[in-house]
Amino acid sequence: MVRNSRLQQLFMIVIAAILFFSQSGLFGLQTVNAASLDNAVTVSAVDEDGSAVLDTIAVEISDGDTAFDAIKEADEQLEWDTYDFGEMITGIGGVAADPDSNFWSFYVNGLFQDMGASSTEVTNGDNIQFILTDFTAEPQMIDVTVSAVDANGEAVLTDTAVAMPQYTTAYDALLKVAASQGVKVDVSVDSEYLTFLNYLGEPLERECEYWSTYMNGDMMQVGLLGHTVKDGDVLELVVDDWCEPEDPIDEEDEKSEEPPVNEEDEEEDEEQEVVDKDYAEALQAVIAYLESNPAEMDWYGFSALHSAGANVSNDMAEDVASSINDEYAGNATDIAKNIIILTSAGYDATDINGINLIEMLLNEDMQLSNQLVYSLLAIDSLNYPIPEDTAWTRDSIIEAFLDMELEVGGWSFFGERPSPDITGMGILALSAYADDADVKASLNRAINVMSEQQGDRGGYDEEFNGGYSAESAAMVITGLSAAGVDATSDAFTKSGGNLLEHLISFQMEDGSFKHLPEDDVSSVFAINQGALALVAYDQLQNGTGPVFKFDKKEDPKNPEEPGEKPDDGDEDNGDKDKDKDKNDPTDDPNKVIVTKENLHQYETDHAAVVTPNHADKLANFSVAVEPEAADYLVQENKPLVIDNGNTIITIPVPVVKQLRELGEIMEVNLAEQDVAEAIGAVYDFTLTVDGTLVSEFVSDIIIDLAADADEVQEPDANQVKAFHFNEETEKWDVLADSTYDPAVGFVTLTTNHFSTFGVFKHYPEQKDPADDDKDGATPPSVDKDKDKDKKGKKLPKTATNMFNLLALGFVLIAAGALLYIKRKNKVTA
Length: 829
What we know:
This protein is of the alpha+beta class. Helices cover 29% and strands 22% of the residues. Helix 11 runs antiparallel to helix 12, helix 13 runs parallel beside helix 15 (470-482) and helix 19 packs antiparallel against helix 20.
């Protein structure tokens, strides 16, 4: 953009002057004679096709005003409904939303707002845009590149590509890039000329200088607010001037070439240095940062640090408590967050200055997925009892949230692409109800889709969030940890690293977190959600989770520092060893002992779910239940569920009672079998009471076996079956009643005895009258000992008549070739 001739300079000055006086919304000069509004925003609205419903208008605001206040001032035809949580906009500019198909979403500076307009405060210079949005439409993102160069040719904004929502403006793109690079944008708002730029980074040196804007190489004919971004747009800002020309200077003589600095290499080196941190070190660093900077702590960080037992001031909870009175009101999300804040600090949310916040919450209107999720987390934070005659209950919240599940699994604010943020929180909230078959299936689908959606760099490349963000990774780690899934497991490890490493790569030297990898400054949201994720992961490792559960039994005399490893020393610890959790992997990594003392770690509202650490990587492991724990399960009518990731065993209460009557210690043993032709998990299951094998049960036990997704892509779902190994015939018998759910990836069977069970392909058309079983299905078998697996069990016969057809085909080809040769020889003769 360097202009070498005075003619060019004069031409550009004339064009700039014409545009200034003719185009509203143009970013203009630093010194402007037009009257500016002291505190104002711009507001506009478009329909689903991007056509203007409300032209951009400047609206003066007061401190604390919301986006709803601004649009109400701007649009005389505004229509809305009032609910307990605030106002919901139903019509703008005479265009009404159809409650069955679309709604008015809104953006501030190009960022989607998941809170209502009446709950979103705005500040000077904000650009508020309402867009009529289809409920099922995927958000369309536009790639825009932005850069800015000062009068000396130095980069103020480095050339950066950013993803912007469709129908947003070049002004929004500028603000987003500037925020990512920590560059201040100073603007003023005028009632006629709208928003114009004062300076980027630092004030301009001379009054005759101004910022000139170029779109795709051409000087813009409209202001940045007037340009709706298109895919591939390149926005350049350059400091120009109308100053008196100075004597020309030979720039080539004055400048010396300096080798370019590869900023990406520097960022990669810094990122690798951070990734090498241990998660415990990263956790301690962010805790120390928040303790030193309490003003940057939000409800995520406050509650997470309380859950971790960190030294946190209760000022936030005290402020919330003091605000609760007879006039207190809020939407479901705000009330739920306040309940979690108060509960984490030791308050009883059923009696805050005489107000029962649980009852208030359960009578609020809940239409959005985040309202349901946060409400469920709130009432479960201390296992609060549900008051009578409330509009919502635990079951109805869960049912409503499950109804919002996307077809592919997971949840979203809108559209059909799962959002890592809300899906992670959904997994966290539902994990306590994993014993319910519908919830478990939903959790499995959500976890699977999060694994599939994970990008090569180890995180989630969400255009809506500007790319790979710390917050998305943090929310998924939080949910996975509650569900007992390690974020470093194979399912969440891609070519660029695992999910936990990816999150830690966003941590800065002072312990804070940044929003995007290319950012130079930290983000309050990233800091607090990063802290939450690391606390959740730490509690998964130590068996003290999940987060946001504050009814866990702890010894206040011996608090364990967050991120500390269990003491492996041999010195006498007195009573400390007496109360030590018997699930400590340092005792026996292949065995879990469930006692009355540690049962609370596994107990949910409906079952005791034992998820041994890293059991999916163990060939053999066992779960032993002591008599007091078994008695408690029978008394509370809670089944015992053992989940190692590859198989899930549900032992109903009648069987637990049967085993308890037979003796003291019941023990379930699982031994993984290596069977080459299996297309999923194969385990040998045994159950003993005081060392004596129990072979028959009074009620059916449910077993879920994982199928290998790569192996079951080709066969039809009804070809994926569970088999059990018949010791008498030494053959695998098909369990005809077993069912495979491809959405979950598990085969479910019921049995009243333990045996060796596995997942294989089954071909019902393959008949052998001599071997017909009682179910009318033919058990696959082989006759040669060489086909036995290493444990001596024959493999299922999976061959079909295809091989016979192939052999016949080869014979026919050979015959044809011989006839051809014979005929040719005859002709030659």
